[in-house]
Amino acid sequence: MKTTLRACVDGISDFLIGWRHALAVLFLAMTVVFGWSATRVQLDPGFMKQIPIHHPYMQTMMDHIKHFSGANSLLVNLRWKGKGDIYNKPFFEAMRKATDDVFLIPGVDRTRVSSIFTPNTYYIEITEDGFKGEPVVPARFSATPEQLARVRHNVSLSGQVGLLVSNDYKSALIRADLQEVDTGNPAEAEIFYRRVIRNLADIRGQFESPHEYVYTLKQDHPPFKAGQEIDHGYVDYGWSLGMQAFYERPPGGGEPIKIKGSELDVKAVANPDYNPDVEVNIIGFAQLLGDVINGLVGVFAFFAVAFVITMVLLFLYSRSLRLTLVALIVALLPVLWLLGILPMIGFGIDPMSILVPFLIFSIGVSHAVQMTNAWRHEVVRGATAVDASRAAFRKLFIPGAVALLTNALGFAVIMFIDIPIVHELGITACLGVLLMIVTNKMILPIILTHIRLEQRSRENSLKPPSTRQMAIWKQMARCAQPRFALGVFAVCLVLLFVTTHASRGLVIGDTGTGAPELRPTSRYNHDNGEIANHYNIGTDVLSVIVEAPDFAGDSCLHYPVMNLIDQFELYMRGVQGVRSVTSVAGIGKLVIGAFNEGNPRWRALPRSEVGLSTGSKAFDPALGLNTESCRAIQVLVFMKNHEGATIAHAVDQVKDFIKAHPVDGVRMRLASGNVGVMAATNEAVESAEAKMLLAIFGALALLCLLTFRSWRATLCVLVPLTMVSIFCNALMATMDIGLKVATLPVVALGVGVGVDYGIYLFERIQHYLRDGQPFGEAFREAMLERGTAAVFTAITMAIGVGTWTFSALKFQADMGLLLSFMFLVNMLGAICLLPALGAWLFRERAAPQPKPAPHRVAEA
Amino acid sequence: MKAEPIFVAPAAAQRRATGSWPALLFTVIVAAAAAWAFSPRPMPPFAPTFVHPDGFLANGLAQQGKRVIAVGEQGEILLADDLQGPWRQASVEPQRGSTLTQVRFVGPGVAIAVGHDGWVLRSTDGGETWKEAFFIKTKPQADDAPAGPGGLIAPPPGASTSAEPPDSTAAEPPPDASTSAEPPDSSSASAWNPEPPSTDDSGTADDAAQPLLPDPLLGIAGPFDGHLFAIGGFGLMLRSDDDGKTWHHVVSDTIGDHHLNAMLRAADGSLLIAGERGLLARSTDSGQSWTVLPQVYDGSFFGALALPSKTLLVFGMRGHVFRSTDKGQTWQASTVPGNASLFGGTVTRKGQVVLVGAGSTVMVSDDDGQTFRAEHSGAAHDYAAVLPVTTDRWLVAGDAGLQLVSAGETDGDAP
């Protein structure tokens, strides 16, 4: 079988070389097609893609998304930085404008916008003759001192302090819900969110930017004429204007037409609404998305840096400009193909999975290095370019293809996380890696047949390894001596003990406050803090939904239903990590109290329908806490933070309550709100973790057994990987990086990519073992032949992903750090622990045997 | 090309396996470490869930010696041995879940708490454990349970017991039917029915001749010559002659169905009631009969205090405070800052009067209640009761739970 495989590989290599001209034309044509298609690739952002849609919590959320907002909400906060509080004319004018602007954001549910200016915000005043309720801001409001005094009075009676007006009376809030229409078309999702993001940026800029920007067409763009004003706004795009897209409806209506920023002239004029005393804070998924997209610009810069570093390292390694360029181009090819295929299969690129192309590039470089390295050795030994290509292909096709398969497997198993965006990421990345089998293993050899190695590189390769290099390899090779190996074991055991202990501190979910995607110092998290610190509600909401569909009349008028909610409210306020709770029970009691002269002693739930109907003002569906007739009611639990442990604890406590308080006909269901989404995501991640690891290690074990046909070899490759996985968890725990959607794939990826070193190395070791050499010798030979390439690759890839560490996006920085750690340490595992294990597992081979003359290979 | 055999002869395998034991042992240790590292991780410790003093609606406070008791929503009672806390939950048996409105020490270690549904609780151990002394049950109503899939209203017989709090051991039908938070109409009025006097030792009792509606009790007074009074909404008045163990319904046609909010005893032994819509009524025969006094204010009075100087003080809606130096015959309006409704008050040992109310109001009088000055206001909470900690620091109970507030602050701290 082994020989049939070998024959097969030989056959492919002959075919490849024989038909290389025809194939070259074919591949060139494919590249052109994919390249053209790649220009159409779209960003495909979406809120719904980020949630584990099959999780029971999310089923609850989807069942009620029509009535309850879910988690795609927007908060716009205006903060007065001047003297005194908000009760002044400039602030109220800004607030009115901002409220109007929020109404105009596309996709905003206009019935649910609320601020002190919206009619659904009213106050209740209790007098000797009963009470009256009116909108907080009276009609025909023009901010006269008398009216401002009136509004100040109304606000204090409205119960909105801490909700729509901050506790320190220095800011006021506008809340809105965004309704995302999933058309399945990435282009429309991109247009939708880009418009929302631009609207939000303009709301901010209107008060914070001293300039207003007017955009006019440079040239005709039918139906628009040159010089026509296309848009005006408050965001200074600066040099990035050319990358923006504007959407303007043609006169007379119709679909918005896309106009590129590069077609526009921009003119800055003074902004009449600018007020240095007003600060605008905006949070919500759309704003977060906008900030993430802005952060992506940095990703391209890091990519450029990584590209240059890779190029320099490649050149230093091969001393051949041609090989360097070939390796880089071939590493870019799968990225280009992938971007070309995405629009064809109806996929876009989600901002959260933008890293995939870069990762593909890194992996591509690593494999291209192995191939060009092998080719160079053949050429230096005197082979022609064509023969060298064929030989390199034959030597590397099997380990290369196996390594790429394991990479693909690493990406495939992350699909155990049941979240659409992760599936998308897994599919995209799998596809990219599989494409690499074509580009790296087929196109590269064809290109190499046309390359003439520079004389300088040839001479450099013929130089014997320097004494320093030899000394290092000798030192490394000592790991393969049984006695020295014991020392390696001892060191590893100490490390293992420490890291295993540390890894137990790993938390699932987030560890800090604010949006985990961004750094704590980002504008978004500053805004988040401003809102969280000055209002009672905070921004982390867990919504528990109470379904009571079968009661006669209004379910809110049934004491068993309301009492359950009231008990739940009181219970949740006693749970650690809960900031406050809002529900129909609490508000109903407030209204009942108001009907009884505002006396707090009357703030209780009567046991009769008639009594409860006193509070019916609280059961108005417009308040967003219940549906018509209270068929479903949501209890909003505002959390102090969204750290993984806090959420898990709160969810556990809710489950305990539900279990202990069964009420006939009432079903309490977890969960909606952003914390509900996080809870579901965390649980999805938690349940995927073990499955994912078992799957990847099981599959790798199988692949290794098939390739090496030896359980000893399999152990040699897998044990170091297992250890490094534990190290990675320990690193995350000590660096306060939580296990979440962005970081869970790292272990799988690190293992999938890290196994390359072991496979490439052991393939050679086995080769020399079969020649009858003792393990130590075999290891030394293998290191001389492939060790440099392995070390070089690990360093290149680690640098490539390591640049992400400087990204403005926190999740990317975390991923970059962890991946470069995994790449480097897996390489160390392969060259230190692997030989130590081999030294003992293959010890009997060390018995002196008549040593056949080893064929020495001159290596770099 | 020969592959290494996967299967080797047993003897050879044995020899080789023994020879490589350090590597195998290492492998086993790594596998064990991985199993442990990736097994479900422990949750960090969290405080157990309990009723937080700043997380429940608290309506009443009482103090005896160092012991402090606070009562509030869902029948919760917290107690502490210092005004600054820490607070712990008392045991209430049976827990009806009705909101408690007032608490009062009526003897050494003996405390009474009252609340909605005519609920009276009694403790003889300084508030640690509470037993039920009175409760007005509501008749179960057919449509209290959900209709089945076929739309039928009739529930299975045992179904509606779920309305009871789960820790309740009292096997009773669930409460419903009308309360008189709104005056019942004729159809629902016919729905109520008195519970027969209970025979269990919790002592529930009522006047079989006069069926009671589950109206709230809002105040406790006494002991006055061995009598305790509990008063509340719609003219509900209960009297106990045995230190609060059993209670009897007292009916007064003079008072009618006004809400009764506070009762006190003047220096001459006459009793005074303050209530809804300016009601002030006086009894000189230990509450047997009542005379309504001339109205001085048409808004409601929520509380009354007897000052050490024998001055009487009533206070209520929209910042209205009146004082009487002639045992309630005539009343004079006090000077009060602001117009926040006042729901609770206390007198310090030095005779300083402290009143609290809506808008986080705390105000103080040093001249026997003639003039008050605002010491604290601005936040949007309703304070229902107060106890002095120092001359400028108070423990208040209200819709933000128990708070310690100091003069000049805008908001309080959790104790």
UniProtKB/TrEMBL annotation, chain A:
<dbReference type="InterPro" id="IPR000731">
    <property type="entry name" value="SSD"/>
</dbReference>
<dbReference type="InterPro" id="IPR050545">
    <property type="entry name" value="Mycobact_MmpL"/>
</dbReference>
<keyword id="KW-0472">Membrane</keyword>
<keyword id="KW-1133">Transmembrane helix</keyword>
<feature type="transmembrane region" description="Helical">
    <location>
        <begin position="484"/>
        <end position="502"/>
    </location>
</feature>
<protein>
    <submittedName>
        <fullName>MMPL family transporter</fullName>
    </submittedName>
</protein>
<keyword id="KW-0812">Transmembrane</keyword>
<feature type="transmembrane region" description="Helical">
    <location>
        <begin position="425"/>
        <end position="448"/>
    </location>
</feature>
<dbReference type="GO" id="GO:0005886">
    <property type="term" value="C:plasma membrane"/>
</dbReference>
<feature type="transmembrane region" description="Helical">
    <location>
        <begin position="295"/>
        <end position="316"/>
    </location>
</feature>
<feature type="transmembrane region" description="Helical">
    <location>
        <begin position="21"/>
        <end position="39"/>
    </location>
</feature>
<feature type="transmembrane region" description="Helical">
    <location>
        <begin position="323"/>
        <end position="349"/>
    </location>
</feature>
<feature type="transmembrane region" description="Helical">
    <location>
        <begin position="396"/>
        <end position="419"/>
    </location>
</feature>
<feature type="transmembrane region" description="Helical">
    <location>
        <begin position="715"/>
        <end position="735"/>
    </location>
</feature>
<feature type="transmembrane region" description="Helical">
    <location>
        <begin position="692"/>
        <end position="708"/>
    </location>
</feature>
<feature type="transmembrane region" description="Helical">
    <location>
        <begin position="783"/>
        <end position="806"/>
    </location>
</feature>
<feature type="domain" description="SSD">
    <location>
        <begin position="291"/>
        <end position="450"/>
    </location>
</feature>
<feature type="transmembrane region" description="Helical">
    <location>
        <begin position="741"/>
        <end position="762"/>
    </location>
</feature>
<dbReference type="Pfam" id="PF03176">
    <property type="entry name" value="MMPL"/>
</dbReference>
<feature type="transmembrane region" description="Helical">
    <location>
        <begin position="818"/>
        <end position="842"/>
    </location>
</feature>
<keyword id="KW-1003">Cell membrane</keyword>
<feature type="transmembrane region" description="Helical">
    <location>
        <begin position="355"/>
        <end position="375"/>
    </location>
</feature>
TrEMBL record, chain B:
<dbReference type="InterPro" id="IPR028203">
    <property type="entry name" value="PSII_CF48-like_dom"/>
</dbReference>
<dbReference type="InterPro" id="IPR036278">
    <property type="entry name" value="Sialidase_sf"/>
</dbReference>
<feature type="compositionally biased region" description="Low complexity">
    <location>
        <begin position="199"/>
        <end position="214"/>
    </location>
</feature>
<feature type="region of interest" description="Disordered">
    <location>
        <begin position="141"/>
        <end position="214"/>
    </location>
</feature>
<keyword id="KW-0602">Photosynthesis</keyword>
<keyword id="KW-1133">Transmembrane helix</keyword>
<protein>
    <recommendedName>
        <fullName>Photosynthesis system II assembly factor Ycf48/Hcf136-like domain-containing protein</fullName>
    </recommendedName>
</protein>
<dbReference type="Pfam" id="PF02012">
    <property type="entry name" value="BNR"/>
</dbReference>
<feature type="compositionally biased region" description="Low complexity">
    <location>
        <begin position="162"/>
        <end position="191"/>
    </location>
</feature>
<keyword id="KW-0812">Transmembrane</keyword>
<dbReference type="InterPro" id="IPR002860">
    <property type="entry name" value="BNR_rpt"/>
</dbReference>
<dbReference type="InterPro" id="IPR015943">
    <property type="entry name" value="WD40/YVTN_repeat-like_dom_sf"/>
</dbReference>
<feature type="domain" description="Photosynthesis system II assembly factor Ycf48/Hcf136-like">
    <location>
        <begin position="226"/>
        <end position="335"/>
    </location>
</feature>
<dbReference type="GO" id="GO:0009523">
    <property type="term" value="C:photosystem II"/>
</dbReference>
<keyword id="KW-0472">Membrane</keyword>
<keyword id="KW-0604">Photosystem II</keyword>
<dbReference type="Pfam" id="PF14870">
    <property type="entry name" value="PSII_BNR"/>
</dbReference>
<feature type="transmembrane region" description="Helical">
    <location>
        <begin position="21"/>
        <end position="39"/>
    </location>
</feature>
<dbReference type="GO" id="GO:0015979">
    <property type="term" value="P:photosynthesis"/>
</dbReference>
